[in-house]
Fold this sequence. Notes:
Blueprint: E1 2-8, E2 11-17, H1 23-30, E3 48-55, H2 60-66, H3 68-72, E4 75-77, E5 83-91, E6 115-121, E7 125-132, E8 137-145, H4 155-165, H5 167-189, E9 196-201, H6 203-210, E10 230-236, E11 239-243, H7 253-262, E12 270-275, E13 278-285, E14 288-295, E15 315-322, E16 325-330, E17 338-339, H8 341-353, E18 367-370, E19 373-375, H9 377-400, E20 410-414, H10 423-428, E21 440-444, H11 446-456, H12 459-470, E22 472-473, H13 480-488
Parallel strand pairs: 1-5, 6-9, 9-11, 12-20, 14-22, 15-17, 20-21
Antiparallel strand pairs: 1-2, 3-4, 3-5, 6-7, 7-8, 10-11, 12-13, 13-14, 15-16, 18-19
Bound molecules: FE2/S2 (inorganic) cluster.
FE2/S2 (inorganic) cluster is lined by residues 36-38, 40, 42-47, 77, 79.
Amino acid sequence: MGMLTIVHGNCRCTVPAAPGTLLSTLLQQTVPSFALPCSGNHTCGKCRVQVQGFVEPPEAEERALLGTAALSAGIRLACFCHLCGDATVILEQAHSPAILSQSRTPSLVYTETGFGLAVDIGTTTVAMQLFDRASGTILAEQLASNAQGSFGADVISRIQACKSHGLHTLSGRIRGQLAEMAAACMHQAGISHIAESVVTGNTTMLHLFEGLDPAPLAVAPFDVPSHFGGSSRHTLAGAPVYLPRCIDAYVGADTVCAVLAAGLLSGGVQFLADIGTNGELALAQNGRLLCCATAAGPAFEGAGLSCGMPAAAGAIRAVTLEQNQIRCETVQDAPACGICGSGILDALTVMLQADVMDDTGFLEEDFALCDNVRITQRDVRQIQLAKAAVCAGMLTLLEHAALSPDQIKRFCIAGGFGSTLNCDSATAIGLFPAALRDKAAFIGNGALGGASMLLMNRALRADSERIAREAAALSLSSNASFTEHYVACMSFEPF
Length: 495
Ligand code: FES
Protein backbone atom coordinates (compact mmCIF):
# COMPACT_ATOMS: atom_id res chain seq x y z
CA MET A 1 0.00 0.00 0.00
CA GLY A 2 1.44 3.40 -0.96
CA MET A 3 0.63 6.80 0.50
CA LEU A 4 -0.66 9.82 -1.41
CA THR A 5 0.03 13.30 -0.04
CA ILE A 6 -2.42 15.93 -1.26
CA VAL A 7 -1.40 19.60 -1.10
CA HIS A 8 -4.33 21.99 -1.51
CA GLY A 9 -3.53 25.64 -0.79
CA ASN A 10 -2.31 25.76 2.82
CA CYS A 11 -3.75 22.31 3.57
CA ARG A 12 -1.87 19.03 3.31
CA CYS A 13 -3.13 15.54 4.04
CA THR A 14 -1.91 12.00 3.43
CA VAL A 15 -4.16 9.07 2.54
CA PRO A 16 -3.45 5.40 1.80
CA ALA A 17 -3.38 4.57 -1.92
CA ALA A 18 -3.51 1.03 -3.28
CA PRO A 19 -1.32 0.49 -6.39
CA GLY A 20 -3.38 0.94 -9.54
CA THR A 21 -5.80 3.43 -7.93
CA LEU A 22 -6.88 6.24 -10.20
CA LEU A 23 -5.72 9.59 -8.84
CA SER A 24 -9.11 11.23 -9.60
CA THR A 25 -10.92 8.64 -7.44
CA LEU A 26 -8.81 9.45 -4.39
CA LEU A 27 -8.99 13.19 -4.99
CA GLN A 28 -12.77 13.14 -5.22
CA GLN A 29 -13.02 11.19 -1.97
CA THR A 30 -10.60 13.49 -0.14
CA VAL A 31 -11.22 16.94 -1.66
CA PRO A 32 -14.95 17.09 -2.54
CA SER A 33 -14.53 20.36 -4.43
CA PHE A 34 -12.05 18.79 -6.88
CA ALA A 35 -13.92 18.91 -10.19
CA LEU A 36 -13.92 16.50 -13.13
CA PRO A 37 -15.58 18.72 -15.75
CA CYS A 38 -16.11 15.90 -18.27
CA SER A 39 -16.89 13.37 -15.50
CA GLY A 40 -13.53 11.67 -16.12
CA ASN A 41 -14.42 10.83 -19.73
CA HIS A 42 -10.97 11.88 -21.00
CA THR A 43 -12.27 14.69 -23.19
CA CYS A 44 -11.89 18.05 -21.41
CA GLY A 45 -8.23 17.98 -20.32
CA LYS A 46 -9.11 20.12 -17.29
CA CYS A 47 -8.43 17.84 -14.32
CA ARG A 48 -4.83 19.07 -14.27
CA VAL A 49 -2.70 18.47 -11.20
CA GLN A 50 1.00 18.52 -10.46
CA VAL A 51 2.32 15.08 -9.51
CA GLN A 52 5.62 13.90 -8.00
CA GLY A 53 6.50 10.31 -7.09
CA PHE A 54 5.47 6.89 -8.29
CA VAL A 55 2.75 6.99 -10.94
CA GLU A 56 2.22 5.12 -14.22
CA PRO A 57 3.65 7.04 -17.21
CA PRO A 58 1.18 8.89 -19.45
CA GLU A 59 -0.11 7.18 -22.58
CA ALA A 60 -0.79 8.75 -25.98
CA GLU A 61 -4.31 10.10 -25.25
CA GLU A 62 -3.20 11.95 -22.11
CA ARG A 63 -0.03 13.19 -23.84
CA ALA A 64 -2.12 14.63 -26.66
CA LEU A 65 -4.40 16.49 -24.24
CA LEU A 66 -1.57 17.89 -22.13
CA GLY A 67 1.23 18.67 -24.60
CA THR A 68 4.94 18.28 -23.93
CA ALA A 69 5.45 21.54 -21.99
CA ALA A 70 2.88 20.62 -19.33
CA LEU A 71 4.12 17.02 -19.12
CA SER A 72 7.70 18.10 -18.61
CA ALA A 73 6.52 20.44 -15.81
CA GLY A 74 5.07 17.41 -13.98
CA ILE A 75 1.43 18.14 -14.86
CA ARG A 76 -0.89 15.15 -15.23
CA LEU A 77 -4.62 14.66 -15.79
CA ALA A 78 -6.09 13.11 -12.66
CA CYS A 79 -8.61 10.93 -14.48
CA PHE A 80 -5.82 9.24 -16.49
CA CYS A 81 -3.15 8.91 -13.83
CA HIS A 82 -2.76 5.60 -11.93
CA LEU A 83 -0.71 5.46 -8.73
CA CYS A 84 1.94 2.77 -8.27
CA GLY A 85 3.61 3.83 -4.98
CA ASP A 86 4.09 6.88 -2.76
CA ALA A 87 3.26 10.15 -4.51
CA THR A 88 2.46 13.80 -3.86
CA VAL A 89 -0.18 15.72 -5.77
CA ILE A 90 -0.42 19.51 -5.77
CA LEU A 91 -3.79 20.93 -6.74
CA GLU A 92 -3.68 24.01 -8.91
CA GLN A 93 -5.16 27.12 -7.28
CA ALA A 94 -6.88 28.32 -10.41
CA HIS A 95 -9.83 30.37 -9.33
CA SER A 96 -10.07 33.70 -7.64
CA PRO A 97 -13.38 33.90 -5.78
CA ALA A 98 -13.73 37.65 -5.91
CA ILE A 99 -15.45 37.82 -9.27
CA LEU A 100 -18.39 35.44 -9.38
CA SER A 101 -19.53 35.87 -5.80
CA GLN A 102 -19.91 39.59 -6.23
CA SER A 103 -23.38 40.72 -5.22
CA ARG A 104 -25.15 44.01 -4.78
CA THR A 105 -28.20 44.38 -2.61
CA PRO A 106 -30.57 47.27 -1.88
CA SER A 107 -29.92 49.19 1.34
CA LEU A 108 -30.69 46.91 4.24
CA VAL A 109 -31.55 47.27 7.93
CA TYR A 110 -29.26 44.99 9.92
CA THR A 111 -31.30 43.37 12.69
CA GLU A 112 -29.01 40.45 13.55
CA THR A 113 -25.70 40.10 15.35
CA GLY A 114 -22.81 37.62 15.29
CA PHE A 115 -21.21 36.06 12.23
CA GLY A 116 -23.12 34.23 9.54
CA LEU A 117 -22.70 32.52 6.17
CA ALA A 118 -24.72 33.21 3.02
CA VAL A 119 -24.49 30.36 0.52
CA ASP A 120 -25.74 29.89 -3.03
CA ILE A 121 -25.58 26.28 -4.23
CA GLY A 122 -25.56 26.68 -8.00
CA THR A 123 -25.75 23.59 -10.20
CA THR A 124 -22.30 24.45 -11.55
CA THR A 125 -20.82 26.86 -9.00
CA VAL A 126 -21.09 27.20 -5.24
CA ALA A 127 -20.56 30.66 -3.72
CA MET A 128 -20.24 31.47 -0.03
CA GLN A 129 -19.71 34.69 1.90
CA LEU A 130 -19.00 35.12 5.60
CA PHE A 131 -20.56 38.24 7.13
CA ASP A 132 -20.41 40.26 10.29
CA ARG A 133 -24.20 40.46 10.53
CA ALA A 134 -24.30 43.65 12.60
CA SER A 135 -22.59 45.71 9.89
CA GLY A 136 -22.99 43.66 6.72
CA THR A 137 -19.22 43.52 6.27
CA ILE A 138 -17.98 40.63 4.13
CA LEU A 139 -15.15 38.97 6.07
CA ALA A 140 -14.30 36.16 3.67
CA GLU A 141 -15.62 34.42 0.60
CA GLN A 142 -15.19 31.17 -1.27
CA LEU A 143 -16.16 30.09 -4.76
CA ALA A 144 -15.84 26.56 -6.12
CA SER A 145 -17.22 24.26 -8.76
CA ASN A 146 -20.12 22.24 -7.34
CA ALA A 147 -18.59 19.01 -6.00
CA GLN A 148 -21.46 17.04 -7.55
CA GLY A 149 -20.17 18.09 -11.00
CA SER A 150 -18.86 14.60 -11.76
CA PHE A 151 -22.47 13.33 -11.61
CA GLY A 152 -23.56 15.49 -14.56
CA ALA A 153 -23.88 19.12 -15.54
CA ASP A 154 -27.61 19.71 -15.01
CA VAL A 155 -30.28 19.02 -12.43
CA ILE A 156 -31.81 16.09 -14.35
CA SER A 157 -28.46 14.25 -14.47
CA ARG A 158 -28.01 14.84 -10.74
CA ILE A 159 -31.51 13.47 -10.01
CA GLN A 160 -30.73 10.41 -12.14
CA ALA A 161 -27.37 10.02 -10.38
CA CYS A 162 -29.24 9.75 -7.06
CA LYS A 163 -30.74 6.51 -8.39
CA SER A 164 -27.45 5.05 -9.61
CA HIS A 165 -25.07 6.33 -6.90
CA GLY A 166 -27.46 6.82 -3.98
CA LEU A 167 -28.98 10.01 -2.63
CA HIS A 168 -26.54 9.90 0.31
CA THR A 169 -23.58 10.14 -2.11
CA LEU A 170 -24.71 13.38 -3.77
CA SER A 171 -26.09 14.77 -0.57
CA GLY A 172 -22.91 14.00 1.34
CA ARG A 173 -20.84 15.52 -1.47
CA ILE A 174 -22.49 18.94 -1.24
CA ARG A 175 -22.66 19.04 2.54
CA GLY A 176 -18.99 17.99 2.71
CA GLN A 177 -18.10 20.74 0.27
CA LEU A 178 -20.01 23.41 2.21
CA ALA A 179 -18.32 22.28 5.43
CA GLU A 180 -14.94 22.55 3.73
CA MET A 181 -15.74 26.01 2.31
CA ALA A 182 -17.14 27.24 5.65
CA ALA A 183 -13.98 26.12 7.44
CA ALA A 184 -11.88 27.95 4.86
CA CYS A 185 -13.95 31.16 5.24
CA MET A 186 -13.74 31.04 9.03
CA HIS A 187 -10.00 30.33 8.92
CA GLN A 188 -9.51 33.25 6.52
CA ALA A 189 -11.46 35.61 8.84
CA GLY A 190 -9.87 34.22 12.03
CA ILE A 191 -13.16 33.31 13.71
CA SER A 192 -14.18 30.06 15.40
CA HIS A 193 -17.96 30.36 15.66
CA ILE A 194 -20.89 31.50 13.55
CA ALA A 195 -24.47 32.18 14.65
CA GLU A 196 -26.37 30.99 11.57
CA SER A 197 -26.29 30.34 7.81
CA VAL A 198 -28.74 30.92 4.99
CA VAL A 199 -28.37 28.38 2.16
CA THR A 200 -30.19 29.06 -1.09
CA GLY A 201 -30.23 27.25 -4.42
CA ASN A 202 -32.56 25.80 -6.99
CA THR A 203 -35.17 23.29 -5.83
CA THR A 204 -33.07 20.24 -6.73
CA MET A 205 -29.93 21.59 -5.06
CA LEU A 206 -31.83 22.29 -1.82
CA HIS A 207 -33.31 18.77 -1.85
CA LEU A 208 -29.82 17.35 -2.27
CA PHE A 209 -28.44 19.55 0.52
CA GLU A 210 -31.28 18.47 2.79
CA GLY A 211 -30.97 14.78 1.83
CA LEU A 212 -34.52 14.58 0.42
CA ASP A 213 -35.16 12.42 -2.64
CA PRO A 214 -35.52 14.81 -5.61
CA ALA A 215 -36.95 12.10 -7.95
CA PRO A 216 -40.51 13.60 -8.07
CA LEU A 217 -39.05 16.88 -9.40
CA ALA A 218 -38.05 15.16 -12.65
CA VAL A 219 -41.33 13.49 -13.65
CA ALA A 220 -44.84 14.80 -14.32
CA PRO A 221 -46.75 16.11 -12.42
CA PHE A 222 -43.45 17.52 -10.94
CA ASP A 223 -44.50 17.28 -7.30
CA VAL A 224 -42.25 19.13 -4.89
CA PRO A 225 -41.40 17.02 -1.80
CA SER A 226 -40.53 20.18 0.14
CA HIS A 227 -40.77 23.88 -0.70
CA PHE A 228 -38.54 24.65 2.33
CA GLY A 229 -38.95 28.09 3.90
CA GLY A 230 -37.69 27.19 7.37
CA SER A 231 -34.91 25.55 9.34
CA SER A 232 -32.79 22.80 7.85
CA ARG A 233 -32.38 19.54 9.72
CA HIS A 234 -28.63 19.95 9.14
CA THR A 235 -26.16 22.40 10.59
CA LEU A 236 -23.29 24.15 8.87
CA ALA A 237 -20.13 24.83 10.88
CA GLY A 238 -22.12 23.76 13.94
CA ALA A 239 -24.76 26.49 13.50
CA PRO A 240 -28.41 26.34 12.37
CA VAL A 241 -29.28 26.80 8.71
CA TYR A 242 -32.29 28.63 7.24
CA LEU A 243 -33.49 27.47 3.81
CA PRO A 244 -35.55 30.05 1.85
CA ARG A 245 -38.77 28.93 0.19
CA CYS A 246 -38.88 27.63 -3.41
CA ILE A 247 -41.64 28.46 -5.91
CA ASP A 248 -42.00 25.13 -7.72
CA ALA A 249 -39.98 22.18 -9.01
CA TYR A 250 -37.94 24.32 -11.39
CA VAL A 251 -38.09 27.82 -9.94
CA GLY A 252 -36.18 27.65 -6.72
CA ALA A 253 -35.24 29.63 -3.66
CA ASP A 254 -32.36 31.12 -5.65
CA THR A 255 -34.89 32.98 -7.82
CA VAL A 256 -36.79 34.20 -4.75
CA CYS A 257 -33.51 35.49 -3.29
CA ALA A 258 -32.57 37.17 -6.57
CA VAL A 259 -36.03 38.83 -6.73
CA LEU A 260 -35.41 40.20 -3.26
CA ALA A 261 -31.88 41.39 -4.10
CA ALA A 262 -33.10 43.04 -7.31
CA GLY A 263 -35.96 44.84 -5.54
CA LEU A 264 -38.02 43.47 -8.42
CA LEU A 265 -41.37 44.09 -6.75
CA SER A 266 -40.65 47.78 -6.16
CA GLY A 267 -43.14 48.89 -8.84
CA GLY A 268 -43.73 49.00 -12.59
CA VAL A 269 -42.96 46.22 -15.03
CA GLN A 270 -39.60 44.70 -14.19
CA PHE A 271 -37.85 41.62 -15.55
CA LEU A 272 -35.17 39.48 -13.93
CA ALA A 273 -32.99 37.02 -15.82
CA ASP A 274 -30.79 34.91 -13.54
CA ILE A 275 -28.52 33.36 -16.09
CA GLY A 276 -26.84 30.22 -14.83
CA THR A 277 -27.05 26.53 -15.72
CA ASN A 278 -30.74 26.86 -14.93
CA GLY A 279 -31.88 30.11 -16.57
CA GLU A 280 -34.49 31.44 -14.14
CA LEU A 281 -36.71 34.27 -15.30
CA ALA A 282 -39.15 36.42 -13.36
CA LEU A 283 -41.55 39.11 -14.54
CA ALA A 284 -42.97 41.53 -11.96
CA GLN A 285 -46.09 43.51 -12.80
CA ASN A 286 -48.44 45.26 -10.39
CA GLY A 287 -46.87 43.48 -7.43
CA ARG A 288 -47.38 40.04 -8.98
CA LEU A 289 -44.62 37.69 -10.02
CA LEU A 290 -44.69 35.33 -13.01
CA CYS A 291 -41.69 32.99 -13.31
CA CYS A 292 -40.27 30.19 -15.38
CA ALA A 293 -37.07 28.21 -15.64
CA THR A 294 -35.30 27.19 -18.79
CA ALA A 295 -32.45 24.72 -19.18
CA ALA A 296 -29.60 26.90 -20.37
CA GLY A 297 -26.84 24.40 -19.54
CA PRO A 298 -23.51 25.37 -18.03
CA ALA A 299 -21.99 27.08 -21.12
CA PHE A 300 -22.60 30.65 -19.86
CA GLU A 301 -20.64 29.76 -16.75
CA GLY A 302 -17.73 28.67 -18.90
CA ALA A 303 -18.33 24.96 -18.28
CA GLY A 304 -18.68 22.43 -21.09
CA LEU A 305 -16.77 24.61 -23.58
CA SER A 306 -13.45 23.41 -24.96
CA CYS A 307 -11.56 26.34 -23.38
CA GLY A 308 -14.27 27.43 -20.94
CA MET A 309 -13.62 28.44 -17.34
CA PRO A 310 -15.25 30.63 -14.66
CA ALA A 311 -14.49 34.38 -14.63
CA ALA A 312 -11.28 33.79 -12.69
CA ALA A 313 -7.70 35.00 -13.21
CA GLY A 314 -6.63 34.41 -16.80
CA ALA A 315 -10.16 34.00 -18.20
CA ILE A 316 -10.76 36.02 -21.35
CA ARG A 317 -13.66 38.24 -20.30
CA ALA A 318 -13.84 40.68 -23.21
CA VAL A 319 -12.95 40.44 -26.90
CA THR A 320 -12.89 43.27 -29.41
CA LEU A 321 -11.98 43.66 -33.06
CA GLU A 322 -9.80 46.71 -33.68
CA GLN A 323 -8.41 47.37 -37.16
CA ASN A 324 -8.83 43.71 -38.02
CA GLN A 325 -6.89 42.68 -34.92
CA ILE A 326 -8.45 40.62 -32.14
CA ARG A 327 -7.90 42.13 -28.66
CA CYS A 328 -8.60 40.03 -25.58
CA GLU A 329 -8.89 41.29 -22.01
CA THR A 330 -8.40 38.79 -19.23
CA VAL A 331 -9.53 38.78 -15.61
CA GLN A 332 -6.80 40.36 -13.47
CA ASP A 333 -4.77 40.84 -16.69
CA ALA A 334 -3.31 37.38 -16.16
CA PRO A 335 -2.04 35.38 -19.16
CA ALA A 336 -5.03 33.95 -21.05
CA CYS A 337 -5.81 30.36 -20.05
CA GLY A 338 -9.49 30.04 -21.00
CA ILE A 339 -12.67 31.97 -21.68
CA CYS A 340 -15.65 32.81 -19.44
CA GLY A 341 -19.29 33.54 -20.30
CA SER A 342 -18.95 37.26 -21.05
CA GLY A 343 -15.85 36.60 -23.18
CA ILE A 344 -17.56 34.00 -25.30
CA LEU A 345 -20.46 36.35 -26.11
CA ASP A 346 -17.97 39.00 -27.20
CA ALA A 347 -16.03 36.40 -29.17
CA LEU A 348 -19.16 35.32 -31.06
CA THR A 349 -19.98 38.96 -31.83
CA VAL A 350 -16.49 39.49 -33.22
CA MET A 351 -16.77 36.28 -35.24
CA LEU A 352 -20.02 37.55 -36.77
CA GLN A 353 -18.39 40.94 -37.53
CA ALA A 354 -15.36 39.26 -39.10
CA ASP A 355 -17.58 36.91 -41.15
CA VAL A 356 -15.91 33.80 -39.79
CA MET A 357 -19.29 32.63 -38.48
CA ASP A 358 -22.70 33.12 -40.08
CA ASP A 359 -25.95 33.82 -38.23
CA THR A 360 -26.79 30.09 -38.18
CA GLY A 361 -23.64 29.59 -36.12
CA PHE A 362 -21.77 27.75 -38.88
CA LEU A 363 -17.97 27.91 -38.61
CA GLU A 364 -15.57 26.88 -41.38
CA GLU A 365 -12.91 26.00 -38.82
CA ASP A 366 -12.00 26.57 -35.17
CA PHE A 367 -11.43 30.26 -34.39
CA ALA A 368 -8.26 31.08 -32.43
CA LEU A 369 -8.48 34.02 -30.02
CA CYS A 370 -4.87 33.54 -28.92
CA ASP A 371 -2.30 30.74 -28.84
CA ASN A 372 -4.10 28.56 -26.33
CA VAL A 373 -7.75 29.66 -26.49
CA ARG A 374 -9.93 28.77 -29.44
CA ILE A 375 -13.64 28.57 -30.17
CA THR A 376 -14.84 25.34 -31.79
CA GLN A 377 -18.03 24.56 -33.69
CA ARG A 378 -19.21 22.56 -30.69
CA ASP A 379 -18.67 25.59 -28.41
CA VAL A 380 -20.79 27.73 -30.73
CA ARG A 381 -23.57 25.13 -30.66
CA GLN A 382 -23.48 25.00 -26.86
CA ILE A 383 -23.93 28.78 -26.61
CA GLN A 384 -26.56 28.72 -29.33
CA LEU A 385 -28.69 26.23 -27.38
CA ALA A 386 -28.21 28.17 -24.14
CA LYS A 387 -29.06 31.55 -25.60
CA ALA A 388 -32.08 30.19 -27.48
CA ALA A 389 -33.41 28.67 -24.22
CA VAL A 390 -33.01 31.93 -22.24
CA CYS A 391 -34.34 34.17 -24.98
CA ALA A 392 -37.33 31.92 -25.77
CA GLY A 393 -38.16 31.76 -22.06
CA MET A 394 -38.19 35.56 -21.88
CA LEU A 395 -40.40 35.94 -24.93
CA THR A 396 -42.83 33.26 -23.68
CA LEU A 397 -43.21 34.96 -20.28
CA LEU A 398 -43.80 38.33 -21.92
CA GLU A 399 -46.33 36.85 -24.33
CA HIS A 400 -48.16 35.13 -21.47
CA ALA A 401 -48.43 38.49 -19.69
CA ALA A 402 -49.47 40.23 -22.95
CA LEU A 403 -46.46 42.57 -22.74
CA SER A 404 -43.85 43.58 -25.28
CA PRO A 405 -40.13 44.06 -24.45
CA ASP A 406 -40.40 47.86 -24.72
CA GLN A 407 -42.95 47.93 -21.88
CA ILE A 408 -40.30 46.71 -19.44
CA LYS A 409 -39.08 49.53 -17.20
CA ARG A 410 -36.07 47.76 -15.71
CA PHE A 411 -34.24 44.61 -16.81
CA CYS A 412 -32.12 43.02 -14.06
CA ILE A 413 -29.47 40.50 -15.01
CA ALA A 414 -28.18 38.24 -12.26
CA GLY A 415 -25.55 35.52 -12.16
CA GLY A 416 -21.77 35.73 -12.13
CA PHE A 417 -21.96 35.80 -15.90
CA GLY A 418 -24.17 38.90 -15.73
CA SER A 419 -21.78 41.01 -13.73
CA THR A 420 -19.33 41.35 -16.61
CA LEU A 421 -21.70 40.95 -19.54
CA ASN A 422 -21.38 43.35 -22.46
CA CYS A 423 -24.97 44.33 -23.37
CA ASP A 424 -23.97 45.24 -26.92
CA SER A 425 -22.67 41.72 -27.50
CA ALA A 426 -25.69 40.14 -25.79
CA THR A 427 -28.07 41.98 -28.09
CA ALA A 428 -25.84 41.54 -31.18
CA ILE A 429 -26.11 37.75 -30.91
CA GLY A 430 -29.81 37.88 -29.96
CA LEU A 431 -29.52 36.77 -26.31
CA PHE A 432 -32.15 39.33 -25.41
CA PRO A 433 -34.25 41.89 -27.33
CA ALA A 434 -32.44 45.09 -28.35
CA ALA A 435 -35.24 47.08 -26.65
CA LEU A 436 -33.85 45.96 -23.28
CA ARG A 437 -30.25 47.01 -23.83
CA ASP A 438 -30.48 50.44 -22.21
CA LYS A 439 -32.68 49.20 -19.36
CA ALA A 440 -30.25 46.56 -18.14
CA ALA A 441 -29.02 46.63 -14.54
CA PHE A 442 -26.49 44.05 -13.37
CA ILE A 443 -27.00 42.78 -9.85
CA GLY A 444 -24.17 40.22 -9.74
CA ASN A 445 -24.97 37.01 -7.88
CA GLY A 446 -28.57 37.90 -6.93
CA ALA A 447 -29.22 34.55 -5.23
CA LEU A 448 -26.26 35.11 -2.91
CA GLY A 449 -27.23 38.75 -2.41
CA GLY A 450 -30.77 37.76 -1.38
CA ALA A 451 -29.45 35.03 0.93
CA SER A 452 -27.24 37.60 2.65
CA MET A 453 -30.27 39.90 3.12
CA LEU A 454 -32.16 37.06 4.82
CA LEU A 455 -29.12 36.36 6.96
CA MET A 456 -28.93 39.93 8.24
CA ASN A 457 -32.61 40.83 8.48
CA ARG A 458 -34.82 38.07 9.87
CA ALA A 459 -38.07 39.94 9.11
CA LEU A 460 -37.39 39.60 5.39
CA ARG A 461 -37.74 35.83 5.65
CA ALA A 462 -41.52 36.09 5.99
CA ASP A 463 -41.57 38.46 2.97
CA SER A 464 -39.53 36.02 0.89
CA GLU A 465 -41.82 33.13 1.87
CA ARG A 466 -44.87 35.18 0.86
CA ILE A 467 -43.23 36.08 -2.48
CA ALA A 468 -42.61 32.37 -3.15
CA ARG A 469 -46.13 31.31 -2.13
CA GLU A 470 -47.86 33.97 -4.22
CA ALA A 471 -45.70 33.70 -7.36
CA ALA A 472 -47.13 31.98 -10.42
CA ALA A 473 -44.86 29.60 -12.33
CA LEU A 474 -45.24 28.93 -16.02
CA SER A 475 -44.18 25.48 -17.22
CA LEU A 476 -42.25 25.61 -20.48
CA SER A 477 -41.92 21.85 -20.98
CA SER A 478 -45.11 21.47 -23.02
CA ASN A 479 -45.60 25.09 -24.02
CA ALA A 480 -46.07 25.38 -27.81
CA SER A 481 -45.22 29.06 -27.80
CA PHE A 482 -41.88 28.36 -26.09
CA THR A 483 -41.03 25.75 -28.72
CA GLU A 484 -41.74 28.20 -31.54
CA HIS A 485 -39.66 30.93 -29.93
CA TYR A 486 -36.87 28.45 -29.20
CA VAL A 487 -36.50 27.54 -32.87
CA ALA A 488 -36.59 31.21 -33.93
CA CYS A 489 -34.07 32.21 -31.25
CA MET A 490 -31.43 29.79 -32.57
CA SER A 491 -30.34 32.45 -35.01
CA PHE A 492 -27.43 34.72 -34.01
CA GLU A 493 -29.31 37.80 -35.12
CA PRO A 494 -30.29 40.90 -33.16
CA PHE A 495 -34.03 41.49 -32.87
S1 FES B 1 -12.03 15.17 -16.11
FE1 FES B 1 -11.98 15.65 -18.21
S2 FES B 1 -10.06 14.84 -18.87
FE2 FES B 1 -10.14 14.36 -16.76
